[in-house]
Design a protein that fits this description.
Blueprint: H1 9-29, H2 36-58, H3 63-73, H4 80-89, H5 100-118, E1 124-131, E2 134-139, H6 143-167, H7 170-199, H8 206-226, H9 232-254, H10 258-347, H11 356-387, E3 395-398, H12 399-417, E4 420-424, E5 432-435, H13 437-453, E6 459-466, E7 472-479, H14 486-489, H15 502-505, H16 513-523, E8 527-531, E9 539-546
Parallel strand pairs: 4-6
Antiparallel strand pairs: 1-2, 3-5, 6-7, 7-9, 8-9
Helix pairs in contact: 1-2, 1-8, 1-9, 2-3, 2-4, 2-8, 4-6, 6-7, 7-8, 9-10, 10-11, 12-13, 13-16
Length: 549
């Protein structure tokens, strides 16, 4: 052994590279969580480590030991492209995508050439020592096959890197940029300095390939850590702790006195205990963080599902609205005919009805048709409101005239039920408002019709009065009906809202009339509200509109 060569630039560089690779290998080994991808990375580190150490010994050994070492120099690199390919294929995902047959064929060549490198005269015949700083090899007959194998596998490595880089997007693409760039540069430097240059008799940079590849491992590892694929805090803690242990242990070996050894041993023991405790603490923190990350991921997935479900519901709601619009349009024509003909029969257009039972039956048909027409009209208006297709034609009208028109349509029903309806206002005052007359009639019809339906007996009083500032007019509709529970009042103008016992009084109610009235009033920059002292004490509805000069 040539001890003079221990302190050359080549040996010092290779020794430091081997040390850092060994520490890195040990850190990953003692990690609790390991995946297939990490095992491939460990194989890559180990292959590089063997290459670095055997290249280091090339400069310090001689005789038969040197020849054995040269055979081992070509043993480690035989596995390097294999582990690089496996690492690239499973990074950052875990899927390899090779069948058992394809994987077996792929692994055959690295194993074959690694074994071949150990056979005398197969790849290496001999090594010639020119001087203590220079050596060159005499290659065997099968060396060129080894040369071709390495070149083909490294070309395949570059192809896989480009393919995966083009395939990935976003964060995953950022993850592999630094890693794959280092792999590509390291592969190029290693093949050029160690394989090609030595093949043609130039050994001046033979050590550079293994030296650079060793530090390349650290650069790749940094790239992986940078993008969160390993636990950086735990690794940093383990790296510092383990390095401190090794340095203190080496110091103990070189201590000159037993006192120094004892003191350093005590310090090393304390540092080992504290280091283990720190690593455990960091590990617990990481486990908790991983649980939080899983929870965040689950919440993200749930949010995505909710967004998709919400989008699907919107589409379904749109289709529902379109269907309701189509259906109600189709129902209007036959209902209009039924209502018209029943009115004509009752008016005697086709002759006087002689049988009272027939007249009563036609009356029921007429009333039911009127109720159904209002329901259809409500559904049609809701469809228009939800689709944004409701059109308004504004004109100036007098509020009492609007309400009189509405009362003409409901007075027969009120008389039949024995209800008295009165309209109270100052006839000397004009209550002019700018509204869509047809839509505003619908508002008052829905409110007054509700008052009639839910007032079994008594009266309905309607008051029209200006506000104190004279800017608005308030229409107050008071009934002596069933009343409204206090908890229901705030939601009366929402869709499908009815009082809990409303169906006992009127089974045809849908909870849509007041909703439609409220939406129409919003379009007029007006509003409505209700009040009641409770069940059985009647109700009061208010509508406030802006007056025009």
């Amino acid at each position: 052994m040539n001890t003079n060569n221990f302190f050359t630039i080549e040996t010092i560089s290779l020794l430091s590279t081997a040390f850092f690779n060994l520490v890195l290998f040990m850190i990953i080994i003692i990690r609790n969580k390991k995946t297939r991808n990490i095992y491939y990375f460990l194989g890559f580190i180990l292959s590089i480590f063997i290459w670095v150490v055997t290249t280091l010994f090339l400069y310090v050994l001689d005789g038969k030991a040197l020849l054995i070492d040269v055979h081992l120099i070509y043993f480690g690199p035989a596995f390097i492209p294999m582990f690089m390919i496996l690492f690239i294929k499973t990074f950052p995902k875990e899927k390899l995508g090779y069948s058992k047959l394809k994987l077996s064929l792929f692994l055959f060549f690295p194993v074959f050439f690694s074994i071949l490198s150990l056979i005398p005269n197969a790849i290496i015949k001999n090594v010639v020592v020119v001087n203590e700083y220079s050596r060159y090899f005499i290659f065997g007959k099968l060396y060129w096959f080894y040369f071709i194998y390495i070149c083909i596998y490294f070309i395949f490595v570059l192809y896989l890197m480009v393919e995966k880089y083009l395939m990935l997007k976003g964060r995953e693409k950022n993850q592999i940029e630094m890693i794959f760039l280092n792999l590509a540069i390291g592969s190029f430097v290693g093949v050029i300095t160690t394989l090609i240059m030595s093949t043609f008799g130039n050994y001046s940079l033979f050590w550079v390939g293994s030296f650079y590849s060793g530090h390349l491992v650290i650069a790749i590892f940094y790239g992986i850590v940078r993008y969160g694929l390993f636990d950086i805090k735990l690794i940093a803690t383990e790296f510092i702790t383990l390095t401190t242990w090794i340095l203190l242990f080496v110091k103990i070996l070189f201590d000159k006195t037993s006192t120094d050894r004892l003191v350093d041993s005590i310090i090393l023991s304390l540092i080992i205990i504290s280091g283990i405790m720190i690593i455990k603490t960091v590990t617990k923190e990481i486990v908790l963080r991983e649980k939080d990350d899983i929870l965040v991921d689950n919440i993200t997935v749930l949010n995505q599902k909710l967004e998709k479900t919400n989008a699907d519901l919107k589409v379904l709601d749109q289709k529902k609205s379109e269907f309701m619009s189509l259906a109600t349009h189709q129902l209007r024509a036959p209902l209009t005919a039924m209502k018209g003909y029943s009115s004509m029969i009752l008016d005697g257009t086709f002759g006087k009805i002689q049988n009272p039972e027939i007249e009563a039956a036609v009356n029921k048909i007429s009333r039911s048709t009127t109720d159904l027409t209002m329901i259809v009209e409500d559904y049609l208006n809701i469809s228009r409101i939800e689709q944004g297709s409701m059109r308004y034609n504004f004109s100036v009208v007098n509020v009492p005239d609007l309400i009189k028109d509405v009362l003409e349509g409901v007075m027969n029903t009120a008389d039949r039920l024995g209800l008295k309806i009165t309209l109270n206002y100052d006839a000397t005052i004009k209550y002019n408002v700018s509204v869509d007359p047809g839509k505003m009639k619908q508002v008052f019809l829905n409110i007054i019709d509700n008052a009639i339906k839910y007032t079994p007996s008594g009266n309905i009083d309607i008051y029209i009065k200006k506000t104190e500032d004279g800017k608005n007019v308030i229409i107050k509709i008071i009934d002596t009906g069933v009343g409204i529970r206090v908890e229901v009042l705030s939601s009366l103008f929402q869709k499908f809202v009815r009082a809990p016992d409303a169906s006992k009084i009127n089974i045809l109610g849908t909870g849509l009339g007041l909703y439609v009235a409220g939406e129409i009033l919003k379009a007029h920059s007006a509003h409505a509200w209700a009040n009641s002292e409770g069940v059985g004490k009647g109700s009061t509805f208010y509508v406030e509109l802006s007056l025009v000069n």
